[in-house]
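Weekend entry, working from home. Most of the wet-lab plans are on hold until the incubator is repaired, so I used the time to fold the two sequences that have been sitting in the queue since the last round of cloning. Logging both here for the record. First:
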Amino acid sequence: MPSLPDDRFPLPEDFGPGSVWADRTGHRTLVGRTQRGVEIPIGHGEGEASPGELLKLALIGCAGMSSDVNLARRLGEDFEARLWAHGTSDEAENRYLSIAEEVQLPLEGLTAQEIATVVKVFDRAVAAGCTVERSVVPGVEVTHRVLGAEPGEEQA
């Protein structure tokens, strides 16, 4: 059953599928909510995600979801993956100038050509399917790197 905000404020005219909201819970703290009942504490305290962290999580979450089906065809349905996003905001410009994404995949036992194909498949899937990245770029440089796939790196 979809979740709706309480009635402290009327629903905005544009409220509909995909709408999210955040309620203030204290000084510079909020709780973000989705219609599926997800709650995310937002702030800079313990147990809270900052808006910048949420941006980076959105980017790598989108990259992971966008590439999942295509990578599963190459690496097996139950492949493991971990995605990282690194970057800090530039204080002078008060914005992120770059966010570096790194992906860890099970590349052991793959040939150099197979690894190159995995990297290409990942990059193409993200470029075509990641709505979040397509919305952010070209405003911020977002780079991707499949860890262990760089030329000259040995596979375990």
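Second, folded right after the first finished:
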Amino acid sequence: MASGKKRKNKAGSQEFRNTALSDALQTQDMAAVAFALRHGPTVVPLLRHGSRDDPRDAGEVWTYRDPNTGDVALLLFSDATHKPETLPPAVALQSPEWLLAFLATHIDQITTVFFDIAGPHAMQATPADLIEALGA
């Protein structure tokens, strides 16, 4: 976690951010984004929280399905404060290993991945590009 002032999630319990990812998105440097993803957590929107009694239950990830094309997008955030209020309120802080496994499992369904879609420095990548970046 980043040092300095801590930001709290809506529940007020812990910091939900990856400063290196935020910095990499600001420069739009894919190599820096890949490094940040390999070495830090990612904020993921959830439809439902995981069970506190089952550490294997990470919750249900929220994805966006375009009503016109059926394309599915995964939205990821460098900081929970960048998540639009219109998305479900729950978030999870997921590890690089979790992200790699999730993308590999759903590569046939997810067509694109957006980072900080509402800004301040949005970026887009394909699941295949991210899997390659996470494996490097």
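Plan for Monday: verify the second prediction. The helical segments are 19-27, 30-39, 96-105, 127-135.
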